[in-house]
Amino acid sequence: MSGPGGAPGLRTPSLRRRVTLVVVALVAVLLVVLVAATELALRERLDDQLRQRLVERAGVADALVGEVDDRDLARRLEGEGVSAVVRTADGEVFAEGPLAGAAGVAPGDGEDATGGSGGTGGDSSEGGGPADGGPRGPATVPSPLRGDPGPPDPPGATPAVQESGDLLTVSRSLADGSTLLLLADASDVRETVAQVRLVLLVTAVAVLLATALVVPLVVGGALRPLRRITDVARSITRGDRGRRLRPTAPGTDLGRTALAFDEMLDEVVGAEARAVDSEARLRDFVSDAAHELRTPVTGIRAAAEHVLRTDPPREEREQVLVDLIREAQRAGRLVDDLLLMARIDRGLALVTGPVDLRSVAEEVARSPRPGPAVVRVAGGPVVAAADRDRVVQVLGNLVDNAVQAGARQVELRSFYDGDAAVVEVVDDGPGIPAADRERVFDRLVRLDPARERRAGGSGLGLSIARGLARAHGGELVCREPAGGAGTRMRLTLPAGATADGPVGAATTPRG
Predict the structure, then answer these.
(1) At CA 59, angle to CA 54 and CA 60, rounded to 5?
(2) What percent of the residues of the chain are helix, what percent strand, and what percent coil, each to the nearest 5?
(3) HEC per residue, 88-139
(4) What pTM value is reported for the model?
(5) What letters, b where the CB count within 10 A reaches 16 and e where it falls short, cover 359-394?
(6) What is the distance between the terminal CA atoms of the chain, rounded to a whole angstrom?
(7) Distance CA 344, CA 148 (A)
(8) pLDDT tens for residues 350-383?
(9) How much is the mean pLDDT over the chain?
């Protein structure tokens, strides 16, 4: 899916559903591994215990042989799931335990006719065989031991446990020549393991169901901050620009997201405020520019209509024409200033080079201007990297502004301030209040409430001067005068090469 302009849109799958599926799948895999590992470990443990029990009984037989008779030996070895069959060297068989039948001998075989536990030889003439009444022969090892368990282990050797299906056996030769057969059934172990497996599987299913029910609730709680972000964004869309998230833990993932969201909102709201302010200033500027142009245009029209309609005498007509030219010049200056401000805003091209600010100040001081004001120059040679014509224009605007404000003494002081070349224009005029020292650089601003236009001033002189200073990479500010009276304008420009140093190449920086 693509957004505006063909750009791919942001994929927004359900976090709750994805997290739930991932967690349930992970828990299922872990439970399967747990059930399999538990079953394997339990079966191996129980099998090992059963084998160890057979080995231990074989060791007990080695210790008891010769101490007890064969019948008693079989009885002592039987128990805890182990059956014992003892075949003497004479062929008598004594079997004890439920698994004795696996060896072809019923429990109690070897008892005599009186019901005693004495063994009966294979050649006894009393009592028939189990099926045909004939004499019982020596015990053999039929199913499931027909697969020969192998020759008996010699006395003292480590017993070897043989396995046939669920039946575990140990066949061992004893020191007295008899043979011992120990049997254990592992089917109980298999049943126990199967029961444990069933319990684990039922428990695993219950755990999966509980996980599927609980995880969405937990995830929903964890995603609650995202819902708040959404609510704040919608409220801001509806006009509540002051709402913010203000995360309590800005170091977390959601905290960083909320902090970035707040910073974005601050920038957006600030940009909106600046745009509104800029629009208001633009409207005011257009209104002021129209107001400034209306007066000379009105004068031009009135003078022209007067000449055309009344055909005044020569002297009066010449005076009217002089007024008409003066108003036309005034309108022309205002238009030129507006065009210059537009060029400064777009980026004024400058041809910079080494400029001696003292010589520029002397040139400005020599320029004729009306009124009794005296313009003096102080300070030594100061070289700046600047456009000489534009510096002349800036200093000329500052001096003219001081003279129009009523100053009688104007002094231009040039000096270095660190790596900057500085010219200060100081006058003894009425001065500028501290609250207005920045506002005077706004466009079409006059501090005179009556909006008096001294010598046709448009109110753009200081704005143009600051724009030219900044186009050079410098600054123009109004500072507190040293004596507390008058005005002190400070022009700062990048210092250039001295007379004895290298001269930089001309550049055309953009404002």
Answers:
(1) 95
(2) 50, 15, 35
(3) CCCCCEEEECCCHHHHCCCCCCCCCCCCCCCCCCCCCCCCCCCCCCCCCCCC
(4) 0.46
(5) ebbeebbeeeeeeebebebebeebbbbbbbebbbbb
(6) 43
(7) 110
(8) 888 999 999 999 999 998 887 788 999 999 999 9
(9) 78
3-class DSSP assignment, residue 237: helix
Which tokens go with 326?
């003066």
Angle at 465 between CA 273 and CA 506, to 5 degrees: 110
**Distance (Å, rounded) from C-alpha 327 to C-alpha 258?**
60
165-174 pLDDT, tens per residue? 888 888 888 8
Tokens of 180: 């011992």
183 touches 105 (CB < 8 A): no
pLDDT at 489: 93
Is 80 exceeded by the pLDDT of residue 500?
Answer: no
For 131, counting Cβ atoms within 10 Å of its Cβ (0-12 exposed, 13-18 middle, 19+ buried), the class is: exposed
pLDDT, residue 450, reads 43
Q: pLDDT digit string (tens) for 458-468?
A: 667 888 889 89
DSSP strands (E only) in 359-469: 374-379, 383-386, 409-417, 420-427
Helix (H, G, I), strand (E, B) or coil at 164: strand
The 10s digit of each residue's pLDDT in 304-353 is 887 888 878 888 888 888 888 888 887 787 787 778 777 777 777 888 89
The rounded distance, in Å, linking the Cα atoms of 74 and 81 is 14
What are 98's two structure tokens?
């439920």
Q: What count of other Cβ atoms lies within 10 Å of the Cβ of residue 447? A: 12
Using left for φ > 0, alpha for ψ between -120 and 50, and beta otherwise, residue 136 falls in beta
Span 479-497, mean pLDDT? 87
Residue 269: burial class (beta carbons within 10 Å; 0-12, 13-18, 19+): middle
Q: Cβ atoms within 10 A of the Cβ of 506, count? A: 11
Is there a contact between 493 and 396 (Cβ–Cβ < 8 Å)? no
Q: How far apart are alpha carbons 195 and 48 in whole angstroms?
A: 19
**Nearest of 412, 354, 417, 362 to residue 383 by alpha carbon:** 354
